[in-house]
């Protein structure tokens, strides 16, 4: 079983979790302006202390790779790289939109053919979103979307689609299709990264620690290409 340090700083929350195989064994989080820079080093130190106390050797560091805020992702990725270099372990990059899907899949009873549409707010009526099936297979790649009454109609005509994430709230009054469902309170948190980071670890799907760059929201709004996660 892999012992992985998970770091999530893509949005307003700062969170760190330690996973050991199929379980999250320790986690800590905070929310608020400036909490990433202030609290992340302490969270990481606490997680590593817990691992040492339990006799666990760190096998990898997973970090949310975006899309997300420039400041939060920069702090999270820099910290993750520092731990990788200091501990001699590999870096795992996990897409933020997939992290948002985990609590929905684990905690909700959904229709077998339903689709998931995690959304990250990109101001005005823009969101960054992707569409996944119930096995977290990509139905539509992540993209920047301008929301109107016909958004995602090609999926809604055939499936129930669940919308969630901090970009979904502003879409409730616009996407009125009978198959649209909205779930409140879904946040990208490190304690939900375990299934994704462990899967990538077992598949030897690692990022280049030296050259990995997260996907910042401001970059996709400017039309820059998506880095490979």
Q: Would you write up a description of this structure?
A:
With 229 residues, this protein is an alpha/beta fold. The chain is built from six helices and ten strands, in the order E-E-E-H-E-H-E-H-E-E-E-H-E-E-H-H. It has helices spanning 35-53, 70-87, 96-107, 153-156, 194-202, 217-221; strands at residues 3-8, 13-20, 23-31, 60-64, 90-94, 115-121, 126-132, 138-146, 161-164, 180-183. A five-stranded mixed sheet has the order 3-2-1-4-5, sandwiched between helices. The protein has a five-stranded mixed sheet with strand order 8-7-6-9-10. A hairpin with a 5-residue loop joins strand 7 and strand 8. It is globular. The two termini are 23 Å apart.
Compose a concise summary of this entry.
This protein is α/β, with parallel strands linked by helices. It contains six helices and ten strands, in the order βββαβαβαβββαββαα. It has a five-stranded mixed beta sheet, sandwiched between helices.
| Category by helix and strand content | alpha/beta
Helix content: 25-40%
- Low-confidence residue ranges: 224-229
The count of helical stretches stands at 6
Main sheet strand line-up:
3-2-1-4-5
Q: Could you tell me the mean pLDDT?
A: 93
Percentage of residues in DSSP E strands:
25-35%
- In this structure, how is the largest beta sheet organized? 5 strands, mixed
Question: Nearest-angstrom radius of gyration?
Answer: 17 Å
SSE series:
EEEHEHEHEEEHEEHH
Q: How far is the first residue's CA from the last residue's CA?
A: 23 Å
The count of strands amounts to 10
Shape: globular
Question: What are the main properties of this structure?
Answer:
229 residues; five-stranded mixed β-sheet; disordered C terminus
